[in-house]
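Recap from last week: sequence in, structure out.
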Amino acid sequence: MAKYLLVLTDRQPVQHPVTADGLTIGHARDVDVVLSAPGVAARHARVRLHGDRALVEPLEGAIEPRELRVGEEVTVASGVRLRLVESGQPQVQLAKSPDALSFDALTGADPDRAVRFQRRFQLLMQMARTVGAGTDYQGVLDKLMDVAHRGLEPERAVLAMLEADASGQGRIRFEAARHARSEDPWHDLHVSGTILGRVISSGEAFIVADAAAAEQLAQAYSISTQGIRSALCVPFHWRGSVAGALYVDHRGDANYFDEDDLDFLLMLSQLATVALQNVQDYEMVRDEVRALREAMGGETALVGDSGAMATVRQLTGKVARSDLPVLIQGERGTGKELVARAIHALSSRAAFVAVNCAAIPETLTESAFFGHEQGAFTGASHPHRGYFEQAQGGTLFLDEIGDLKPPAQAAILRALQEGEIRRVGSLETVTVDVRIISATNRDLEGGEFRADLYDRLNVLRIDVPPLRARAEDIPQLAAHFVGGRVKRISAKALRHLRDYAWPGNVRELKNVVERAIVMGDGETIWPEDLPPSVREHGKEGHYHLMSLETLERDHIIRVLRHTQGNVSHAARVLGIGRLTIYKKLKAYGLETRDFKD
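Predicted structure tokens:
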């Protein structure tokens, strides 16, 4: 089994392969293991393999000869210990930090080494600037290769990443490369897979002074065929684990790299990791924003730049990353379904199924939500998949959840608790994976709505503001609804739109704009194209020279609010026909459900 010399100093431990030819230790540049600790001579000692042991022999250092067995160690200078280990034994993990590159270590050092430290410090500062520069991923890779090339002057530099393959074993992918002797960075990239694999699997840095003389490495294909003499390789960490390695080599000279070079490469790897992770996080957020904008475009637009809408967008982006239930609250016409669709569009879920709970007859609730088998009841002529099965793997949007009757609430609560449903007329259960997004214009707490179901639905919550609370968005909304069909909205007409209270919120604004486009006969929407109620009714509710049509409209609205949108009841109070009320509502740009509050 291969033997390695583990060098333990006040820095981090580094292992070197030890052979019968031996390793030389000292502070001279041409030794195998360069040390700068106090008391280390230029050619301090030699460590060579003898059978299954290592012999430590003094050269210029004041030490006694020593024989080491595997696991034993010896102190050869102040703060320098040597330990003999075998391949496969647990090794000390390297965790270098920028503190390791200390100019205190240069005290008493030769001027050339000081100049080299100064130049490398400047290169590391250049790399550090990419951490928060917001550059692109390839730009960081280019800077990494440039700094490695200028700082170490290797023949070849490679960033290798480990990626999964079909066999599950993983393969090495070259992410970036640089070649000193070729303008093509990908030219002649037969680097040492043995060294890369060892560093990636162990998570430890590796330095070899003369690969051809190392017994275990000399037999490797890349070492023997490519003539690699000296190499450095350090682990490349990605979000807490080793995901690759940063490698440099030289095929001309042995002893080309020393421990100072290893320190530099370790710090460069750490800086590059942070920079690339920042770029990836930035690109992920940018993609989410782009997807959010796309999801909020067209018919599902969440239009408006007010602070209230900025909050809604922010919450929408956050809750989309989760599969937890969402409760959307807001007055009728505020766009609760648009928010639900935007959440779904930003998620990775499949189908989006929208259900108006107020429109489901109580007797058909279970069939509608859970489906039925053929012959389960009169009229069940064929099997039917309910809303839960239709939304399998996707999102089930329960609009007006507050209108569900108590039996339906109990059935949905059971389905949410158990994660499974049973079709009407069937004895078999079906497991469902459905995300629930519900919406209501009511306060569900403290009323007839089941508290346990409310707790299930109200895990994440978004409150959609009424239009009167974000009047600054009205011009942008109006322009959005115009959609290029007219060229402009006059300033006076826009002022009327801003001053109106909008009891029907965004839906009513859309209807008013649609009506104005139809009623107008030019390229501009004028005040005369707006309904009288919008022209003559201020935001505070005061009447200004109100016409008979406006008085009639306001009276009908007050009665409908009193009857909670019950047209039959309102018709009896007003003494007019139901059809007349429906015609009036259409002219006003309103619907009966706008008054169910």
